[in-house]
Amino acid sequence: MDAAEWDQRYASSDLVWSAGPNQFVAAELADLPPGRGLDLAAGEGRNAIWLAAAGWRVTAVDFSANAIDKGRRAARERGLDVDWVVADVLDYKPAPAGFDVVVIAYLHLSPGDIAAVLRTAVEALAPGGVLLVVGHDVTNLTEGVGGPQDATLLYRPDDIAAQLDGLRIDRAVRLRRPVPGDPGGRDAIDMLVRAHRPA
């Protein structure tokens, strides 16, 4: 989907995603000391807002102006300051080594495009910084529920980890995520890679 299609989707409901952070983002980053955070493809900003509430100075980037507007309003209602940026993550160039954490959550692009975003994320990490990538795993097609139905857009932990040159891999795993309201009571199968740049 392009920016216009996502703008329509975000305009069609109050929240496309939940108001709270992704459960894996919260679990992996809760114990980190606050610093500078970057949320690439932030959508309505649920992870960026959560980080800001925990004391992070956050930049949230998405190509949907409607999503960014929603995030800006939600942050303002909570008295939180987030730097909201309308930009395509394929073109966006953050400050090199400028961030202590970079989050990429459920960004599903072609292999070449996701490789480009991962390079951007790695370059943005400061020494000691943490990169967290979460998304639908390729096994979700046959064992899970939801997410893209095109295998070329889905993740494998080892594939993502192999593209993080210069970082040390802390975790590269598949995880099950309960999907509330799924009529079959099925879980989604997600992938999580956490890595860090040596200090």
Quick rundown:
The chain is an alpha/beta fold.
Could you walk me through the main structural features you see in this protein, from its secondary elements to its overall organization?
31% of the residues lie in helices and 28% in strands. Strands 3-2-1-4-5-7-6 form a 7-stranded mixed β-sheet. Strand 6 and strand 7 (187-196) form a beta hairpin. It has 199 residues and is of the alpha/beta class. It is globular. The chain contains 7 helices and 7 strands. The protein has helices at 3-11, 23-29, 46-53, 65-77, 111-124, 140-143, 157-162; strands at residues 36-40, 57-62, 82-86, 99-105, 125-136, 168-178, 187-196. It has a single domain (3-10, 43-196), classed as Rossmann fold (3-Layer(aba) Sandwich), CATH 3.40.50.150. Helix 1 crosses helix 4. The termini are far apart.
* Rg, Cα atoms, Å: 16 Å
CATH fold node name: Rossmann fold
Please state the average pLDDT score: 92
How many domain modules? 1
The proportion of residues in beta strands is: 25-35%
Q: What gap, in angstroms, lies between the N and C termini?
A: 38 Å
Q: Main attributes?
A:
single chain, globular, 199 residues, seven-stranded mixed β-sheet, Rossmann fold, alpha/beta
Question: Topology, pairings included?
Answer:
Elements (H helix, E strand, L loop, with lengths): L2 H9 L11 H7 L6 E5 L5 H8 L3 E6 L2 H13 L4 E5 L12 E7 L5 H14 E12 L3 H4 L13 H6 L5 E11 L8 E10 L3
Parallel strand pairs: 1-2, 1-4, 2-3, 4-5
Antiparallel strand pairs: 5-7, 6-7
